[in-house]
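Before relying on records like the one below, remember that each one covers exactly one chain. Contacts with other chains, cofactors or solvent are not represented anywhere in the record.
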Amino acid sequence: MIFNDLQILEKLKEGDPLAYNQLFDKYYMPLCVYSLKYCDSFPLAEDIVQDLFVKIWDEKLYMKFDNPVSPYLFKSVRNNTLQVLKKESKYQFDDIEKMVNNLMEEEPLDFATLEEEKKKLFDQVEALPEKSKEVFKAIVLENMKYKEVAEHLDISVNTVKTHYARALKQLRFKLDIIIMLMMV
């Protein structure tokens, strides 16, 4: 049974460890994709998201939440990603900060614009190299795990991760739409 954020939080507060699994399963991939908007490394994005989930569990942060957790998760991932980038000095932090501010100032998409963007995204997905396209569709559209995709396509899990990271990198300019699709 799939629960909404508030139900998951209630179960967590009651001590149900399966609720933590649901929270992780629901948000892990969208948060990785969101982190990828700011960094060039899918493994780095995964590390950032995993660290956040460990912190939530270890420090029992879920006990402090009364509202849906998604705004906290996305804001934390953005901030943590920017902090990591600043520490690594790979990018000029001022440029990243300007980009973040520009993203935050953008108007939300209306339904017609979202549908138009979705069509453009699907066109871009179809233009991906064949294996990257298969892996991307399996993970994003069919909600398959890396291991399942690897078994289905008869390739290694690392190859799946490589194809997925390449696809996301090519589709980077459409990541907002991808995140919305993953959350639906």
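The mean pLDDT is 78.
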